[in-house]
Design goal:
Layout (H helix, E strand, L loop, with lengths): L3 E6 L2 H17 L3 E6 L10 H7 L6 E2 L7 H19 L3 E5 L3 H12 L4 E6 L9 H12 L2 E4 L2 H9 L6 E3 L3 H9 L5 H7 L7 E5 L3 H4 L2 H18 L2 E5 L2 H9 L10 E3 L4 H10 L2 E4 L2 H9 L4 E3 L7 H5 L4 E2 L5 H9 L16 H13 L2
Parallel strand pairs: 1-2, 1-4, 2-3, 4-5, 5-6, 6-7, 8-9, 8-11, 9-10, 11-12, 12-13
Helix pairs in contact: 1-7, 1-16, 3-4, 4-5, 8-12, 10-15
Length: 363
Amino acid sequence: MENTIISLVGARPQFIKEAVIASEVHKTNAWNHILVHSGQHYDVNMSDLFFEELQIPTPKYFLEVGSSSHGKQTAAVLEKFEDILLQEKPDLVLVYGDTNTTVAGALAAAKLNIPVAHIEAGMRQYPKNMPEEVNRVVTDHLSSLLFCCSELSYQNLQRENITSGVYIAGDVMYDLFLRMKPRFLKDKMLQNLTLHEGEYILVTLHRDFNVDNKESLLPILEGLNDYAKMTGLSIVFPMHPRTRKRIEEFDLATYLDSMNIVEPVGYLELMGLLEGCSNVVTDSGGLQKEAYYAKKQAAVIMPDTGWKEIIESGWNQLVPGNAAKELLPRILENKFIAYPVNLYGDGNAAKAIVKNIMTYLNK
């Protein structure tokens, strides 16, 4: 009898990770794969590229929970997903990352004695009371299979006495990066923006603790401008609407005069800019990893990150927003670190995950 697995997603990054896994499932005909989308974040502009390249299926169920408080959102997913589990009776539930959808799915499955597999298990980040960290820890302790992106994530679980069913699989986003790399639009972006390879810094900023108060945002803009003047490099800044709004609100627009401000760009365009840049300044969880994949060093404008492997290797460095004026020029100039290889596997994470799930189900 064919096994059935339900894969639960709630946000765009999870959708893409799911698609990498689903692609491997369909390639090997591993099991009956049912996709459920909670609607925690609904992105109507999900790129056709991913649907085409990764053959993302339409979810069988769409829970339409929408935005709400953490408690209400988690409760809504828990209630609606439980009904689906009772109807479909899957052999296992797949969850991803650290959202409210993730922890609600793990709770619903565990209470019905359905095994849970957690992709991106073992990540840990300060402060410990942040909602995403709570979701990670709870999900890990409820899961039967835990797929870690790195050796450090594996060690984090060992320290919490989670030792059964734990695997270092690598990162499915590295699978995606390698798969899409031939399609990155470096030449197009350099031509469109009149850029020269290696002569600009790529910047993205969007997190509330960086852009929602002037005391953090101003030093970041000052640090960027100081470094650009010092080195002669350009600054290419695909600007998030939230950041643009705050810069206007805080009357900081003059700091953008020397920068190349562009509208937010799609994945292939952003990866093209990444391939052509000198280095990166970002507060994006995804881009700090993608910078590592592209062998570009990044200043990560965060107090802490779940991707500590890259920080501990010395390749990327953390920069608190309020200290950015002083630290950014010094950190960006530090380019003499040996590239730490294979922090997140060899690009075959999906294959390892599917293989280990099949072994588990066939026992």
